[in-house]
Every structure is written in C-alpha cells, then in structure tokens.
Amino acid sequence: MAIQKIAVIGAGAMGTGIAQISAQSGYDVILYDIAEPMLQKSKANIEKGIAKLVQKGKMSAETGDEVMERLSFTTVLETVKDVDLVIEAVIENLKVKQDVFKNLSALCDAHTIFATNTSTMSITKIAAVTDRGNQFAGLHFFNPATIMRLVEIIRGYYTDDATVEALQTYVASLGKESIEVKKDSPGFVVNRLMLPQFREAYLVYDEGIASLEDIDKALKLGLNHPMGPFELMDYTGLDIAFDSFEYLYSEFALPNWAPPTALRRMINANRLGKKTGKGWYDYE
Prior knowledge:
Blueprint (H helix, E strand, L loop, with lengths): L4 E5 L3 H12 L3 E5 L3 H20 L5 H9 L1 E4 L10 E4 L5 H14 L5 E4 L6 H5 L8 E6 L8 E6 L5 H13 L3 E5 L8 H17 L5 H11 L6 H8 L1 H15 L8 H8 L16
Parallel strand pairs: 1-2, 1-4, 2-3, 4-5, 5-6, 7-8
Antiparallel strand pairs: 6-7
C-alpha cells in the first residue's frame, strides 16, 4: 500500500519532528494533540525550523511555504480517520498509548497502518487493544527526528511483511535508514545497547572515579560519540531514561536493569534536564 497521508498523534518534541520531516518529504500530515497550546508551540517550532533551512539556503522560501501548506494542526481526533499511516508519539506510558489506539482502532479506515514511536515498550501489548495486529508496528525515531538518520522498525507478534515493507519505503522516502527489529524485545536494539552504557556512567560517577564532565569527554573523544551520556540524558530527559530503566527492569527482572540510585536522586530533585533548566548540568 502506498502511504500518502499521515497523522501524527502528540505534538511534543518527537511528534513535531516526525510531522516536519514527513511534510518536508512530500506527505500531507495531520498533527493531533489534545492541547491547543501544544499545537501552537509545535507549529511555531516547525516554522522556525523551516525558516532556518531557508536562511541556510537548504530550502527555497517557496518550498518552505509548500511544506507548511501540507501540515494541518487539530484537537479533533476524527480528522485522522482516513489517513494511510498513524504514528503515535505520546508519553511513554502503556495505558495512555493503549487508550489512544483503542480510539484510533474504532475510528480509522481498515487499510490504515498503526505505528508507535515507543523507545522500549512492547509493540504486541500496545497492538493488543486494536483490531489490526498485522498492520501494527513500532516506528522508533530518534531525537531530533528531523536530523537523526536511523529509524527502528519493530515487529509485534502479528506484524505482517506488507506492513514492514510499507514502513521501510516510508522511512527511505524521508532520506533515513531503517533497521528491522525482528523480535518484540524490550529496548529493541539501540536502547538495549545504550542504557547499560548509561548505567555504567552513573556508577563511574557515583563511585568517584571521574567527574561527569570527564566521563562525557571520555566518550566523545575516546569513542567518537557526538554527545556524552550525561549530556545526552539532559537533552532527551532524565525522566525518560528513568522510565525506560523501570520498564526494562519490570520486563527482564534482572538487577542490572534497575534504575540507578544516582538517577533516582536526580528525579526526586526534579532535575530532568534541559526542559527543567537543570539536569546533570545547569542550563539557567
């Protein structure tokens, strides 16, 4: 099935980025959120992003206008009923995601593919509340979605080949690379590999082996990472890292997945990263 019209559910940072890159790639996009202020903020951020591309000569002003014309913003869920692909990008909470897809399942056309942008949660569990497990998959973009090149396509237990192939074609049309996660395993590939590294960084810092600044420097200069683990956590949100550890610990029941004490202390102090102005580093 050819995907032409897309709905993105959730106008946070991830939803905004997915909507923008999709519209830039020629798709008609509906961005839905329950909160009008979130939609207005999202629209302003997309306009700002487009303006930067125009300023840098990477896009003409005319093309920028065409991109914005392909985007619509709404608080009315019924407007997404006839799209070809729905990408959910709401908070990392299983019940919230399931509630979203229950409503979408009753609303959307039978041909519509459902995808969740979850970074760790079971695709099969989320899909279980819908009427189309075969047309349901994980589509995990990375932040910022307009720049990061990788997208994980994750099979749920019932996901069929046609759905995976349609999503692979969509991802390629965005100018991105995809990998296929063949089993619905917590954390998929990237977070399964990255979160243990985060945990070791906490332990190295907590044991007084090195400062967080030097740990970040070590991974940037020693392993050629663009950001150190503490910088990256501040950028994406410490609460997201904490929730990911809690979910993986509940799934695997192994002590190495338990949320580290150092991270818990930061959460308790409401130091969640750049979004609160304070995380491992201060931004105010």
